[in-house]
Amino acid sequence: MFSRSPVLNLSGPTEFVFRVFTAVPEFQVLLFLLFLSLYLMNLCGNTAIIWVVCAHSSLRTPMYFFLSNLSFLEICYTSVVVPLMLSNIFGAQKPIALAGCGTQMFFFVTLGSTDCFLLAVMAYDRYMAICHPLHYTLIMTQKLCIQMVASALGLAVFLSLQLTSLIFTLPFCGHYQEINHFLCDVPPVLRLACADIHVHQAVLYVVGILVLTVPFLLICVSYVFITCAILRIRSAEGRRRAFSTCSSHLTVVLLQYGCCSLVYLRPRSSTSEDEDRQIALVYTFVTPLLNPLIYTLRNKDVRGALRNVIIGKAASDTS
Prior knowledge:
- By secondary structure, the chain is mainly α.
- Helix content is about 75%, strand content about 5%.
- The model is unreliable at about 1-10 (pLDDT under 50).
């Protein structure tokens, strides 16, 4: 599926180049238009969620506060990857310096980790809303919500800084190193090191467990209690609304954690570089796009608020 280009072996500072998707000009145009379209849809969809939550007073609740933060993360997450990826589809391979690669890896891991932590925070919010509705407004204050988002970001920055710093202490032999990927992700960069990486691989697994496994287990525990509480609701309409709200979040969780686990937690002997690259396309494009689609198409409050904001904006423009 992917084209392999020759890698120059010159002396000098190490630079990385990304493996091209294809050398066929017609396919390059199609891929560029496809990825650009998905990126613009991601930007528009997630920006619309942030806009409607900020503009509509009825959506200023913890659930929608976390959702707007998730949308902002998705915008930043894709913007760290996609513009550079699009610039490398056409023409010769464009080198990226060691520092540039490390910077992209740091922000990619930071934003991706914050995304995973925030999904766990959203599960806790749903747990409090459904299992402890009488205490929900007393516990889930604006101050606590801001602290939870800040804590998720702070922990992600700490883990990402440690992991990225450790990886870029490794030696990379030769001037040009070709990464079989479209971004400076951890596993493909590790494969290029000309030194023993067992310790670095172990650290990657530890970070993967902290970022993926622990939050996912907390989400599962939250949904066990949530399911039990929903089943005790006597009203069929109440049960349907509760399940609808939770299923949107759970869909995003399963896709995000499932794809990331396949890349970061599989044994190295069973991984394929091309498979990792294809899976990365899912959590780079599909998951951020599903976030606004799932939460708007399946959420009556967001649909109604979005419709009201658009109608109000149109009315003010015509007056």
